[in-house]
């Protein structure tokens, strides 16, 4: 009977006790979160319940497994397996706690500051810090797991003795990777580009969708994803339309006839902008910026709160002004002269059109 009860008590206690402790910790964190809504940390820490239970259960089994006196011939292998699980679950718990602390800090900062640029900058830094912590914890956990094997412990001295040579070889082999790693840290804390920024890289316009320690993803206007190494943004010039504020100024150009009614066109532009929800009302204008022998160049200036809205304003202005000119002032649209040249006093046509071209008059 003792051979049956002892394993049941040891294993059952190692499972039931962590479940109870995890449940009590979850209840305590939930009540604390209800009392302190301004601090999201307590609610985020509730995500640590499962890894905490795994850590406690594995630790209890690792310490009391020999008391069960079952499968004694494989006790060493089972003990090593439990050690590996304990190390992995501990790393899982540390990552969950670090993630909760980082997310809580970002949430409180975002709630206290209304500047979108500063919030995006902190979000970028927080994301990269979280990835660095996860990578460090993972490397330490893997190293600790390897050291549980006697062969790895014996090889430790040899590895340390050849660390200098291996470091040089690894540095040369991983030069590009290390360069991207440091470039990622430079982007995070140098405030060069942030999550949500509108950028133009290699002629492609899009929004920064993801930043990691080695690569950056730009989501274009047509839902494509452009992935490039972060070292690109530290070594080559690029346009950041969100730098210093998201507000933007856009232009729309028209090629019109010299007889175009500029004052009426200016009034129509203002009417179109008043009816356009994407226009932020900061500024607008219309001016003749250039002339050619056949046309004039008219520039409409508009503003909006961000890159998406400036695109909407520009296409709206272009469409409605062209329609208005076509319906109300068709003579203002550019034309091509196909009339016969006026004769000279001696009766010759110095610039006569070829007889094969029909005489259609002014188009």
Automatic annotation (TrEMBL):
One of its GO terms (cellular component) is membrane. Keywords: Membrane, Transmembrane, Transmembrane helix. The chain crosses the membrane at residues 6-29, 77-98, 128-147, 159-185. The keyword Methyltransferase does not apply. It is found in: Membrane. One of its GO terms (biological process) is transmembrane transport. It comes from Streptomyces kanamyceticus. This is Mechanosensitive ion channel family protein. Residues 177-243 form the Mechanosensitive ion channel MscS domain. Residues 341-363 are annotated as: Disordered.
């Amino acid at each position: 009977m003792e051979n049956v009860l002892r394993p049941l008590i040891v294993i059952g206690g190692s499972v039931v006790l962590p479940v109870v402790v995890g449940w009590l910790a979850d209840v305590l964190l939930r009540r604390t979160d209800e009392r302190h809504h301004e601090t999201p940390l307590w609610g985020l820490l509730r995500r640590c319940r499962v890894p905490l239970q795994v850590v406690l259960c594995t630790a209890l089994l690792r310490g009391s497994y020999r008391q069960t006196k079952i499968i004694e011939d494989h006790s060493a292998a089972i003990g090593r397996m439990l050690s590996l699980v304990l190390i992995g679950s501990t790393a899982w718990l540390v990552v969950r706690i670090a993630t909760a602390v980082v997310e809580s800090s970002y949430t409180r900062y975002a709630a206290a500051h209304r500047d979108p640029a500063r919030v995006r900058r902190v979000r970028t830094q927080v994301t990269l810090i979280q990835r660095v912590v996860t990578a460090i914890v993972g490397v330490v956990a893997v190293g600790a797991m390897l050291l549980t094997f006697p062969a790895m412990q014996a090889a430790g001295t040899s590895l340390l003795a050849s660390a200098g040579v291996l470091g040089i070889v690894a540095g040369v082999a991983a030069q590009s990777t290390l360069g991207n790693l440091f470039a990622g840290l430079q982007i995070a804390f140098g405030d060069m580009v942030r999550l949500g920024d509108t950028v133009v890289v290699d002629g492609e316009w899009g929004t920064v969708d993801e930043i990691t320690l080695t690569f950056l993803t730009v989501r274009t206007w047509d839902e494509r994803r452009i992935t490039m190494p972060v070292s690109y943004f530290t070594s080559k010039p690029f346009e950041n339309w969100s730098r210093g504020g998201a507000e933007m100024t856009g232009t729309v150009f028209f090629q019109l006839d010299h007889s175009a009614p500029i004052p009426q066109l200016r009034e129509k532009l203002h009417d179109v902008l008043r009816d356009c929800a994407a226009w932020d009302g900061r500024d607008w204008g219309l001016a003749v910026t250039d002339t050619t022998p056949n046309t004039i160049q008219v520039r409409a200036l508009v503003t909006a709160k961000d890159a998406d809205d400036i695109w909407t304003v520009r296409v709206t202005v272009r469409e409605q002004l062209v329609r208005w000119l076509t319906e109300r002032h068709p003579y203002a649209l550019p034309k091509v002269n196909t009339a016969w040249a006026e004769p000279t006093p001696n009766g010759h046509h110095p610039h006569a059109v070829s007889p094969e071209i029909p005489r259609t008059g002014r188009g």
